[in-house]
Amino acid sequence: xxxxxxxxxxxxxxVIGLDPQMLAIVRLSLLVSGSAVLLAAxxxxxxxxxxxxxxxxxxxxxxVMINACMGLPPVVxxxxxxxxxxxxxxxxxxxxxxxxxxxxxxxxxxxxPIVAALSRQVVADLWGEYGEQLRSLGASRPxxxxxxxxxxxxxLLTAILAGFxxxxxxxxxxxxxxxxxxxxxxTMTTAIALETSKGDLxxxxxxxxxxxxxxxxxxxxxxxxxxxxxxxxx
Length: 234
What we know:
Blueprint lengths: L3 H13 L3 H34 L5 H11 L4 H12 L14 H37 L4 H11 L1 H17 L2 H7 L9 H11 L2 H33 L1
Helix pairs in contact: 1-10, 2-5, 2-7, 3-5, 4-5, 4-8, 5-6, 5-7, 5-8, 7-10, 9-10
C-alpha cells in the first residue's frame, strides 16, 4: 500500500491528467444524479405547490409525511427498490436491477421529498404575501401556480441544488440497487468505498477530491442564488 503522501501525489496526477477510468465514473455519477434531480423537480415542484394551495382531507398528514421523508435512510430506500426490482419482485420482469435506471429511481425517491417540502414552504409563503392580489385579479389556479413558482424561482433553485447535493453524496441506495459494477453502475461514492476497501488509495482519493469540489461548487451555487434572491427582494 502506498503511503499517504505518495497516494495524494498519485491522486492529484489522476485528477490533473483526466484519467479515463475516473472520468467515466464521474460522468456516470453526474448523469444519474442529474437525471434523478430533474425527475424529482418535475414531480416535486407541482406537488409542493399543490400542497401549499389546495385544501383536501388528509393534507396535513401528507405534509408531515413528506417532511419526515426528507430524512429517509438511503439503505432503506435501496432495500425497498431492490425488492421491487428483483426477479421475485413485482417489477422484476423489466430487468432494471443493477442498471443506472434503478439508481436513478432510488435517488429520485431520496431527492423528491426535499424538493416537494421546500417548494411547498416557498409557495405557501408567497401565497400568504400575494394571495389577495392574485385573487383580486381573477387569476386561475394554474396561473397562480405558475406565477408563484416563477416568483420563487431563486428559492426553488436552491431547493433543487440541495437535492442535487444529496444525490451526489449518496452511497447506500445506489450500492444496493446498482451493484457497483465497473463500467456500468460504479459512481464516485461507491467507487470510493470499494477502492478504499481494496487499498487503492490514489483512485479513492482522486474521486474524493472531485466529489468535495463538486459539493463545494453546489454550496457556492446555493449561496450565490440566495444572494441574488435577496438583492431582488431588496
